[in-house]
Structure formats: C-alpha cells, structure tokens
Amino acid sequence: MATDTHNDVSAVYEEEFTFTPASIPASLTATFTPSFGSLANSVRRSSRGLRNRLHSIARDAAFVERVRAAYGVPVVTNARAGDWYVDPARRQGGVYFKSTDGHVGEWMFSLRRLNLGLLGVLEGAGGRGAIIVDSTRRGKRFPDSLSKTIPIWIAVMNKIVIPSQPSPFLQNPQAVPDSEASSINKKLQGFVDDFLALGLDLTPIKRVITKPLRPIWITPDSPLPETPPVFEEFIPLLLVTASQMVKGGGIEGEYIQGAGDDHEGWALESGLTPALFWAHHKALLAARNDDGLLELTHAIVSSTTSIAGGGSSLVKPTSDIYIGAVGAEGTDSYDIIINCTPTPITAAAAPNTAGKCQVVPFPIPEGKKGTKFLRSELPGVMAAVEKCVAQAQEGKKILVVCASGNEVAPAVALVVLCLYYDDEGRFRGLLTVEERAGVDKAYIRRRLAWISASRVEANPARAALNAVNSFLMERPA
C-alpha cells in the first residue's frame, strides 16, 4: 500500500507544471496610457490567480517530497503556510512556530505555543530527526519562523536538557546577522527560566532529547544527499523553506514564491483548504483556467461536510478534561460536554455508561466576534457550567468542543482547569472566594501550559486569553 501511494504521489509531483501566462487586460490600455507601475501591478495581479498559486504549491511540494526521500525522516508542517506543501497522509504532524516571534527586537519563546508535540515525532523517529516545512513570500530566502523562532526553541530545549553544555542560539548566517544573534543569546536564559516556571514534567523531554538538537537549513538550491545520512553527534531538525526565492523588485511572473502564505486572503473566495486541495489535487491541477478552477473548487467545497469530527485530547496531568472539535463527542463517553459552537449536540449523541450526559450550550462565534462575546458572556455562561461541574467529581469526564478544537475550546477549558483543578491536575471542586484571590497570571499560565503540551494544535487568540485572565482575576467589590 505504501509503495502504491508513493508512486501515485510521485506521478503527480513529477508532471510538468503549467502556469497561466500573465497578461495586461485590454480595459487597462483602452482608455489611457498606463504607467510602468500600473502595468506591473496589473500583470502581477493577473499572474497571482488561483491556478498559478496551486501549480506553484504543487511544484514546491515536489521539492519537499525530494527532501523527505533524501533524508528519510518524518515530515511535519508549520501551521498555515506550511500545511499546503505536504499531503496530510504523508506528514506525521504539525507545529506552530510563528514568524512574529522571530521578528527583529521581538524575539520570544512562546509559552502559548510550546510545540512539545514535536517530541513525539522525534521519539518515533528514533532520534534520527525530523523535517519542518514552511515558506515565505518573495524577497526573503527563509521565513523568520525557520531562521529564528525554531532555533530559539532549539536553544531553550538544549539548555533545559543539557544545562552543563553551552547551548547558544544557532545562527543561519544567510538570514541572521551577528549583532542580532548576540541579542538573542542574551535573552535565552530568561526564556529557559520562564519555561521552567510552568512546572511541567521534564521527563518526556529528557527521554527524547538525548543529544543536542541542531537546525539544518534547506532551500530548493541546497544539494541533497544520495542516501539518508546518519547524524551521530546531534538530533537534526531539517528546516525546509519550500519555495524558490524570487529575487528583485520587478514582476514576479507565473511562479509564486510562498504561494501558500496568507491563505486567509487568497483562499477565502474559493473556500479551499490544504486538506481539500490534497484530497482533490489531480482534478484541481488539471483545470485549464482560473474560471474553471474556481467553479470546480466551489463544487468540491459545497459537497464537503462542513463539520468534521476530530479526535479529542486529554489535558494532562488531569485524567478527565478533554478538548476536541465538533464531532469528537462521538468518539468516547463523557459526563459533561461544553459545546462552544452553534451546532446543537444532544445528550444522546454522546451517552456515557449511565446515560446521563449533560450538554452545556455555549455558542461562541468564531474569530474576533467570538472574542468580544467571550469577554461579555463568560461570567454568565460559566455560572451555568459551574452548576454542572460542581456536581461532578474526580473521574467524571468533561469534554469542551468548538469548531476546530483549537481556538475557543482551549480558552474555555482553561477556565475550568483554573477553577476546579489543583496544581497536580486533581479535581478539587470550585475555588473559594479566598482561594480565587490567589489566581494570577502565573497561575493561569501554568494551566495553559498543560493545554499547550497536551494538544499541539491548540491556539487560542491572545484576545481570548485576555478575556479569560480578566474573568479569573476579577475580584469581588
């Protein structure tokens, strides 16, 4: 089966990609003499149609596949842009390292995005390493996620696991000047201290990282080994920028560097997602023009069920709090379901052994509207949640769901963890007024770390977390 799949994918990868030639619309030249800038902008817009984007993505995905074959280690994608370049069936997971955490002067080790799920991938690979795929738009060789955010993470992990050895920020000289590397190194110990303050069990980290982690940067211009290399002295993280760098400030042409970037803008019209693209890539890449492609994508999207089940994640160290997507409630039995979507869930959809599953409706809109709703409605909704949870006891299973399982649900689960669970993850009942006075940002941050470590994809918005902080730290007048 694996061989058949490989051959099928390779056949698609090896085809000659065709692009729609850029042209200047007749309407632009019929009424006036355009400037060079107007012509360039028009051609650029024409060349950046959906068809050229998908063919650019397919071309870059072919390169990523060659890297995977050359090194023979698992592939993970960096969320959003990276997701477009690897078929979901051929990757072993995902991470979320934001480029903004590596911007000049804003370097940080995110306590909201711990990316500890990468440890499971490395452990499964037996210490041989892993590939992380991302891309960036024209004008840069590497996204900041690959040149700085991940190397910062590597340095922090190395310092935690091997404190006796020097573990500096490992610099990519093509992307990071010496002065910036020096400034990052000065911040590393503070990042380590912040991570240790979360109080997480370090045993899983030390079990997997038995040798120093080291980044290796790979671009489409990099030579690839003929046989998979073995690295004896370190565990490699192969940081792959999928797209060919387009130099200069002129017209880009039909190939689009970083075509998967900012897909919230270009994919919005069609409704296309990475999963849908890879499920239908042969038909999509065969479309002859943008109009036909857009019609096809609309047909694919409209025939796809909008609510897909996703596995739920146990938030450790608890034994009874789960987070999942709508649809995950059918995968197990729960005593309480906190439903953060407009989609009704009936108790019959998820009966527990006693047949008394309680569903608490909490229909929060997605996006910024949801954040405002969360801030205004959280006190009232949590009062309803408390009536259910207060009747529970340790061992009663609670599931919190939202559309993706990664945005709203983690924020609401965080409130439950803060109000009902002690520092060891044991159910203790609702905090008293006196105990709640001890809830501060550090207290909340430790429980958020449980979520980040247990559900890699969890990514509640900063504004949502601010709403949670405001609710939990509000003191009675």
From TrEMBL:
MF GO annotations: tRNA adenosine(64)-2'-O-ribosylphosphate transferase activity
InterPro entries named in the record: Rit1 (IPR007306), Rit1_DUSP-like (IPR033421), Rit1_N (IPR033449)
Transmembrane regions: none
Keyword field: Transferase
A GO cellular-component term linked to this record: cytoplasm
Domain Rit1 N-terminal: 43-291
Example of a GO biological process term: charged-tRNA amino acid modification
Span of domain Rit1 DUSP-like: 360-472
Protein name: Initiator tRNA phosphoribosyl transferase
UniProt organism field: Morchella conica CCBAS932
